[in-house]
Amino acid sequence: MARSRFDSASPEETRAIGKRIARLLREGSVVALRGGLGAGKTCLTKGIAEALGVAEEITSPTYTIVSEYQGTLPFYHIDAYRLRGDDDFSALGGDEILYGNGVSVIEWSEKLPQSLPDHAIIVEIAITGGETRRITVRERP
Ligand SMILES: Nc1ncnc2c1ncn2[C@@H]1O[C@H](COP(=O)(O)OP(=O)(O)OP(=O)(O)O)[C@@H](O)[C@H]1O
Ligand SMILES: [Mg+2]
Description:
Elements: E1 2-8, H1 11-22, E2 30-34, H2 41-51, E3 66-70, E4 74-79, H3 86-91, H4 94-98, E5 103-107, E6 121-127, E7 133-139
Helix pairs in contact: 1-2
This protein binds adenosine-5'-triphosphate (ATP) and magnesium ion (MG).
Protein backbone atom coordinates (compact mmCIF):
# COMPACT_ATOMS: atom_id res chain seq x y z
CA MET A 1 0.00 0.00 0.00
CA ALA A 2 1.64 3.24 -1.12
CA ARG A 3 1.01 6.20 1.10
CA SER A 4 1.85 9.86 0.73
CA ARG A 5 1.16 12.84 2.90
CA PHE A 6 0.75 16.50 2.06
CA ASP A 7 0.42 19.53 4.30
CA SER A 8 -1.82 22.34 3.10
CA ALA A 9 -1.87 25.86 4.50
CA SER A 10 -4.67 27.31 2.33
CA PRO A 11 -7.62 26.37 0.12
CA GLU A 12 -5.42 27.15 -2.91
CA GLU A 13 -2.82 24.64 -1.74
CA THR A 14 -5.49 22.00 -1.17
CA ARG A 15 -6.73 22.56 -4.69
CA ALA A 16 -3.17 22.20 -6.01
CA ILE A 17 -2.80 18.94 -4.07
CA GLY A 18 -5.99 17.79 -5.81
CA LYS A 19 -4.27 18.44 -9.13
CA ARG A 20 -1.33 16.30 -8.08
CA ILE A 21 -3.62 13.49 -6.95
CA ALA A 22 -5.28 13.64 -10.38
CA ARG A 23 -2.07 12.33 -11.94
CA LEU A 24 -2.78 8.96 -10.29
CA LEU A 25 -6.16 8.69 -12.01
CA ARG A 26 -7.27 6.96 -15.16
CA GLU A 27 -10.43 5.39 -16.58
CA GLY A 28 -12.36 3.68 -13.78
CA SER A 29 -10.49 5.33 -10.92
CA VAL A 30 -12.35 6.04 -7.69
CA VAL A 31 -11.21 8.56 -5.08
CA ALA A 32 -12.78 8.01 -1.66
CA LEU A 33 -12.57 11.20 0.41
CA ARG A 34 -12.74 11.16 4.19
CA GLY A 35 -12.83 14.14 6.53
CA GLY A 36 -15.51 16.03 8.41
CA LEU A 37 -17.55 19.14 7.65
CA GLY A 38 -15.46 21.87 6.10
CA ALA A 39 -12.34 19.72 5.89
CA GLY A 40 -11.84 20.72 2.25
CA LYS A 41 -13.24 17.74 0.32
CA THR A 42 -15.00 19.89 -2.26
CA CYS A 43 -11.97 22.16 -2.53
CA LEU A 44 -9.73 19.16 -3.30
CA THR A 45 -12.32 17.82 -5.77
CA LYS A 46 -12.19 21.12 -7.67
CA GLY A 47 -8.47 20.65 -8.20
CA ILE A 48 -8.89 17.04 -9.36
CA ALA A 49 -11.65 18.03 -11.79
CA GLU A 50 -9.67 20.93 -13.21
CA ALA A 51 -6.67 18.68 -13.84
CA LEU A 52 -8.92 16.17 -15.62
CA GLY A 53 -10.13 18.79 -18.06
CA VAL A 54 -13.48 19.70 -16.51
CA ALA A 55 -14.03 23.30 -17.63
CA GLU A 56 -16.97 24.02 -15.34
CA GLU A 57 -16.34 24.91 -11.70
CA ILE A 58 -17.48 22.06 -9.44
CA THR A 59 -20.27 23.03 -7.04
CA SER A 60 -21.93 21.24 -4.14
CA PRO A 61 -25.67 21.62 -4.42
CA THR A 62 -27.26 20.61 -1.12
CA TYR A 63 -29.59 17.91 -2.39
CA THR A 64 -27.65 16.51 -5.31
CA ILE A 65 -25.99 13.17 -4.64
CA VAL A 66 -24.33 12.63 -8.03
CA SER A 67 -23.15 15.41 -10.33
CA GLU A 68 -21.73 14.45 -13.71
CA TYR A 69 -19.22 16.58 -15.60
CA GLN A 70 -17.38 16.04 -18.84
CA GLY A 71 -13.61 16.22 -18.84
CA THR A 72 -11.13 14.07 -20.70
CA LEU A 73 -13.24 11.28 -19.14
CA PRO A 74 -16.71 11.40 -17.61
CA PHE A 75 -16.23 12.87 -14.13
CA TYR A 76 -18.61 12.04 -11.27
CA HIS A 77 -18.70 14.07 -8.07
CA ILE A 78 -20.63 12.10 -5.47
CA ASP A 79 -21.71 13.48 -2.11
CA ALA A 80 -22.84 10.65 0.17
CA TYR A 81 -23.65 12.95 3.12
CA ARG A 82 -27.41 12.58 2.71
CA LEU A 83 -27.39 8.86 1.98
CA ARG A 84 -28.17 6.33 4.68
CA GLY A 85 -25.61 3.92 3.32
CA ASP A 86 -24.63 1.45 0.64
CA ASP A 87 -28.18 0.28 -0.13
CA ASP A 88 -29.30 3.83 -0.84
CA PHE A 89 -26.33 4.31 -3.11
CA SER A 90 -26.96 1.10 -5.04
CA ALA A 91 -30.59 2.09 -5.51
CA LEU A 92 -29.44 5.28 -7.25
CA GLY A 93 -27.28 3.30 -9.66
CA GLY A 94 -24.09 4.18 -7.82
CA ASP A 95 -22.37 0.86 -8.49
CA GLU A 96 -22.68 1.32 -12.25
CA ILE A 97 -20.95 4.67 -11.87
CA LEU A 98 -18.09 3.39 -9.72
CA TYR A 99 -17.48 0.39 -11.97
CA GLY A 100 -17.94 2.36 -15.18
CA ASN A 101 -15.31 4.06 -17.29
CA GLY A 102 -15.31 7.52 -15.74
CA VAL A 103 -13.48 8.91 -12.73
CA SER A 104 -15.46 9.19 -9.49
CA VAL A 105 -14.69 11.30 -6.44
CA ILE A 106 -16.81 10.57 -3.35
CA GLU A 107 -17.30 12.91 -0.39
CA TRP A 108 -18.35 11.18 2.86
CA SER A 109 -17.14 7.87 1.46
CA GLU A 110 -17.13 6.51 5.04
CA LYS A 111 -20.87 6.02 4.48
CA LEU A 112 -20.32 3.61 1.60
CA PRO A 113 -17.84 1.01 2.89
CA GLN A 114 -19.33 -1.85 0.84
CA SER A 115 -19.61 0.12 -2.36
CA LEU A 116 -15.97 1.15 -2.67
CA PRO A 117 -13.99 -0.93 -5.17
CA ASP A 118 -10.75 -2.50 -3.95
CA HIS A 119 -8.81 -0.14 -6.19
CA ALA A 120 -10.29 2.99 -4.59
CA ILE A 121 -7.70 5.57 -3.61
CA ILE A 122 -8.39 6.73 -0.06
CA VAL A 123 -7.75 10.41 0.65
CA GLU A 124 -8.15 11.56 4.23
CA ILE A 125 -8.23 15.26 5.07
CA ALA A 126 -7.61 16.19 8.69
CA ILE A 127 -8.14 19.71 10.01
CA THR A 128 -4.97 20.61 11.89
CA GLY A 129 -5.64 24.34 12.41
CA GLY A 130 -7.66 27.27 11.10
CA GLU A 131 -6.29 27.06 7.58
CA THR A 132 -4.07 24.01 7.83
CA ARG A 133 -4.90 20.51 6.68
CA ARG A 134 -3.04 17.23 6.58
CA ILE A 135 -3.91 15.17 3.52
CA THR A 136 -3.05 11.49 3.42
CA VAL A 137 -3.33 9.49 0.19
CA ARG A 138 -3.38 5.70 0.21
CA GLU A 139 -3.38 3.66 -2.95
CA ARG A 140 -2.95 0.00 -3.55
CA PRO A 141 0.15 -0.70 -5.61
N1 LIG B 1 -6.11 24.49 3.82
C1 LIG B 1 -7.40 24.49 3.47
N2 LIG B 1 -7.84 23.63 2.54
C2 LIG B 1 -9.15 23.59 2.18
N3 LIG B 1 -10.09 24.39 2.71
C3 LIG B 1 -9.70 25.29 3.63
C4 LIG B 1 -8.35 25.37 4.05
N4 LIG B 1 -8.26 26.34 4.99
C5 LIG B 1 -9.47 26.84 5.13
N5 LIG B 1 -10.36 26.22 4.32
C6 LIG B 1 -11.81 26.53 4.27
O1 LIG B 1 -12.49 25.36 4.65
C7 LIG B 1 -13.67 25.23 3.87
C8 LIG B 1 -13.60 23.93 3.10
O2 LIG B 1 -14.80 23.81 2.40
P1 LIG B 1 -15.19 22.55 1.53
O3 LIG B 1 -16.55 22.85 1.00
O4 LIG B 1 -14.13 22.23 0.57
O5 LIG B 1 -15.26 21.41 2.65
P2 LIG B 1 -15.97 20.00 2.58
O6 LIG B 1 -15.05 19.04 3.24
O7 LIG B 1 -16.38 19.72 1.19
O8 LIG B 1 -17.25 20.23 3.51
P3 LIG B 1 -18.66 19.46 3.49
O9 LIG B 1 -18.53 18.30 4.39
O10 LIG B 1 -19.61 20.48 4.02
O11 LIG B 1 -18.96 19.07 2.08
C9 LIG B 1 -13.74 26.43 2.95
O12 LIG B 1 -14.52 27.42 3.57
C10 LIG B 1 -12.28 26.86 2.87
O13 LIG B 1 -12.14 28.24 2.60
MG1 LIG C 1 -18.17 19.28 0.28
